[in-house]
Amino acid sequence: MRCSEKRSRSWRWWLRLTGLCLCTCSLLSACAGHGTPPAETSRQTVSVQPSAAALPSWNDGAARIAILRFIAGVTREGSSTYVPPSERIAVFDNDGTLWSEQPMPFQLSFMIEKLKAVAPQHPEWKNTPAYQALLANDTAGIAKNRKAFLQMVAVANSGMTTDEYDAEIHSWLAGAKHPSLGRPYTQLVYQPQLELLDLLRASGFQIWIVSGGTAEFMRVWAMDAYGIPPDHVVGTQEKLSYQVRDGKPVLIRQPGFDFNDDGPGKPVGIFRAIGRRPILAFGNSDGDREMLEYTAAGSGARLALLVHHDDAQREFAYDRQSSLARLDKAWDEALARGWIVVSMKQDWKTIFPAAKAGATQ
Q1: pLDDT at res. 47
Q2: Peptide bond into 84 cis (omega under 30)
Q3: 97 with 9: CB under 8 angstroms?
Q4: Average pLDDT, rounded, for the chain
Q5: How far from 177 is each of 28, 66, 128, CA to CA, in Å?
Q6: CB 226 within 8 A of CB 197
Q7: Could you read off the pLDDT tens digit of each residue along the chain, which spans 361 residues?
Q8: What pLDDT, on the 0 to 100 scale, is given for residue 235?
Q9: CB-based contacts of 64: which residues, under 8 Å, 6+ apart?
Q10: Which N-terminal stretch is annotated as signal sequence (predicted)?
């Protein structure tokens, strides 16, 4: 691999975060009108065949049929495609697969808010081109000064204990709303995917999030959002250090990353955390391509799926030309290998759960 390609891949996660289309508005979702599903740790070991009423928010097209047939085949004892519960592992990307990711990934929105909050403590930032571009919503200026901008973001989101950071994430989630959809971020998960998670859970699957976002960020809300406990979240690993503060042992956030869980890093993260090759993988962009390849390459029944964001009226439309979460090479590979491409416009009857009382539509 050429050095330039290595550098490109090493920056891919941050490029997805910046998307070269930053704005000061936030975007985040954690859970919506879904309740709290059963914890992933209380796995069923019985075979549960999908009913005709399964996945009610999915249109009865090729994608829904393929999913139901797959689940029926791997859970029917005596079937040639039967898979024991211990090997029924499903992995899902998070941003753009389980919830929205526009106009920027949710974690970056939060991290930018942190940057603005701590900026008074860093007067040296005031006259830097990167900070001035951020305040002016100058996306071209941010892109031009990307390295300095990312350094500021890293500093702003480090130095506190993990418990303090968790509390700040919870606080941000409690009051933030999407700038154009007008709903709390906690109501922007995908209803069809919540139904799929429930069906897989009832069918004895172990469900994992495998995302380019950081595990430390996602673990705060994954249980409330999806019923997926913290130990089933695989993500980019931020640097941490052990210290004793005021006589109490704590973990302190440090600038930088120990592991990048995006692109080719996803199969590595899966192997390290799970130790088994999944039999189902669901993504939405080129950053998920290697995860789907790794899953589909195993023996026996396999299912690889991609969400295609083609519904600008109900959500957002983007794919091959997007600077954020581009779906290009993975789409071509899906067509060549028979992976399932789920059209938001054609396959999903609804996108988000019903709005809670008092929420703006």
Answers
A1: 54
A2: no
A3: no
A4: 86
A5: 8, 35, 29
A6: yes
A7: 444 444 344 334 444 444 333 333 333 333 333 444 444 444 444 455 777 789 999 999 999 999 999 999 999 999 999 999 999 999 999 999 999 999 888 888 888 889 999 999 999 998 899 999 888 878 788 878 888 988 899 899 999 999 999 999 999 988 888 888 888 787 899 999 999 999 999 999 999 999 999 999 999 999 999 999 999 999 999 999 999 999 999 999 999 889 999 999 999 999 999 999 999 999 999 999 999 999 999 999 999 999 999 999 999 999 999 988 999 999 999 999 999 999 999 999 999 998 765 544 4
A8: 96
A9: 55, 58, 347
A10: 1-32
What is the side-by-side strand order in the sheet with 303-308? Answer: 248-259, 233-245, 206-214, 89-92, 280-283, 303-308, 340-343
The H or E element spanning position 164 is helix 162-175
Domains of the chain by start residue, with CATH: 29-101+178-347 (3.40.50.1000)
325: left (phi over 0), alpha (psi -120 to 50) or beta: left
Amino acid identity for residue 244 in this structure: V
Query: What are the counts of helices (DSSP H) followed by strands (DSSP E) for the chain?
Result: 14, 7
Q: Do 291 and 93 meet the contact criterion of CB atoms below 8 Å apart?
A: yes
Q: Answer whether 17's CB lies under 8 Å from 107's CB.
A: yes
- In sequence order, what are the residues at sequence separation of 6 or more whose Cβ sits closer than 8 angstroms to the Cβ of residue 63? 305, 340, 341, 342, 343, 347
**Residues 6 or more apart whose Cβ sits within 8 Å of residue 12:** 212, 260, 262, 263, 287
- DSSP-derived pairing of the beta strands 206-214 and 233-245: parallel
24 secondary structure, DSSP code: S
CA nearest 105: which of 232, 15, 197?
Answer: 15
Instruction: Tell me the one-letter amino acid at 105.
Output: P
Q: In angstroms, what CA-CA distances link 162 with 220, 238, 249, 301, 338? A: 10, 11, 11, 40, 42
Distances (CA, A) of 70 to 75, 203, 226, 319, 344: 9, 11, 22, 27, 20
Q: Which 8-state DSSP code applies to residue 95?
A: B
pLDDT, residue 207, reads 98
Task: Measure the CA–CA gap between 286 and 319, rounded to whole angstroms.
Answer: 10
Taking a C-beta distance cutoff of 8 angstroms, is the pair 67, 196 a contact? yes
